[in-house]
Design goal:
The protein has two helices and three strands; from the N terminus they run E-H-E-E-H. The protein is of the alpha+beta class. The radius of gyration is 26 Å and the shape is elongated.
């Protein structure tokens, strides 16, 4: 049985937010986070591009994300098998060292 995969998601808050709006926004985010979210709040950016508050948290994958991942992971397994088969064939080829040209 496959283990469900969790995704790290991000929410950015602009530096141009009033304090009351920020508090209301943070409460709304906190109340809607999934269980076992492990949320973190960081200040990101710099003086040139501006600063922002970034909230990162973990969530379960959506059904669409699971479908896409399973589609691509199946291709990865097939490609890995083909690469392994090619490696075995190359290992069976005898290799002979040529004598270097003597000057």
């Amino acid at each position: 049985m496959p283990v469900p995969r969790r995704v790290k998601d991000f929410i950015d808050i602009s530096e141009y937010t009033s304090l009351d709006d920020l508090i209301r926004y943070l409460k709304t985010i906190r109340d809607n986070l999934p269980p076992d979210h492990q949320a973190e709040l960081k200040i990101r950016g710099d003086d040139v591009f501006g600063r922002r508050l970034t909230i990162s948290y973990f969530r379960e994958q959506t059904p669409d994300e699971v479908e896409l991942e399973s589609k691509y992971s199946a291709n990865d397994k097939a490609e890995s098998a083909n690469i392994e088969q090619l490696r075995r064939k190359l290992d069976d080829i005898p290799y002979q060292l040529k004598e270097s040209n003597k000057a």
